[in-house]
Each structure stands twice: as structure tokens, then as C-alpha cells.
Amino acid sequence: MGHQFTPTYPKLKPSYVQGVLTTKMELFNTRKDISYFSIGVFDKDWNKVAFATDSRIVQIGYLNRKSIDIYIRGLDKKRAVYICSQSKTLTGHKQSTVISSKICSKIK
């Protein structure tokens, strides 16, 4: 089973900084074997879009939730299409078969 990343269709709202938009995402870890996730913002062609957050790599324990604030420049509003989370495996992990999961939400 993969992790959960909600909402499915986040909306960007003005932040407290002029010219910067924000949305709040929630990550729920349903995997015992994974505790790190990366966060990214992408355009329609899956090119990276500049964004800010507390940390692009998030540590979250099994069956725990974490709120993540995403900040995107107003200039990139039309370019930013997806906000994604991807599970990360640790280097040297003993298990031979580990599946990485990636979940993307489409910005409204």
C-alpha cells in the first residue's frame, strides 16, 4: 500500500508575502518500510517548478500525518500544475525489493 497525499485538487491562495501563493497539503504514511518522502512541484511536461516549503525531504513515521505548506511565486501560477510526494528509500536498505510510490495532486 502506498502513502496518501491530499487534497487531490489543491487551490492556491495568496500568502502573507506579496506575490506568493500558498496551499496546504497533508501527507499520511501508510508504509511501515518507508519514513522519508520528497516533495516537488511540476509543470504540465513534468519539468520542475520553483517552490518553497519547510523541507523538500519530509520524515514521517508509520501511520502518522504531517501538514506541509507549499509556496509558489505568483509568476509561476499558470505554469505549476502538479504537487507531488514520492517515497524515498534509505541507501543500504537490507530489503531487496522496495517499491517507491509517487502521488501527485493537480492544482486547480
Walk me through the topology.
Elements: E1 4-6, E2 13-14, E3 20-28, E4 36-42, E5 57-59, E6 65-73, E7 82-88, E8 102-106
Antiparallel strand pairs: 1-3, 2-3, 3-6, 4-5, 4-7, 7-8
What is Rg? 14 Å
Shape: elongated
The run of helices and strands is EEEEEEEE
> What's the average pLDDT?
91
The CATH topology comes to Immunoglobulin-like
Helix run count: 0
As a percent range, the share of helical residues equals under 10%
Please mark out the parts with pLDDT under 50 across 5 or more consecutive residues, or reply none.
none
| Beta-strand share of residues | 35-45%
Largest sheet: 4 strands, antiparallel
Number of domains: 1
First-last Cα distance: 27 Å
Kindly name the structural category: mainly beta
Number of strands: 8
Going by CATH, what is the homologous superfamily?
Immunoglobulins
CATH class: Mainly Beta
For the record, the CATH architecture stands as Sandwich
Polypeptide structure, described:
This protein has 108 residues and is mainly beta. The protein has a single domain, classed as Sandwich (Immunoglobulin-like), CATH 2.60.40.10. Helices cover 0% and strands 42% of the residues. It contains no helices and eight strands. The strands form two sheets. Strands 1, 2, 3 and 6 form a four-stranded antiparallel beta sheet that branches. A hairpin with a 5-residue loop joins strand 2 and strand 3. The protein starts with a strand and ends with a strand. The model has no long low-confidence stretch (mean pLDDT 91).
Please summarize what this structure is.
With 108 residues, the chain is mostly beta strands. The chain contains no helices and 8 strands.
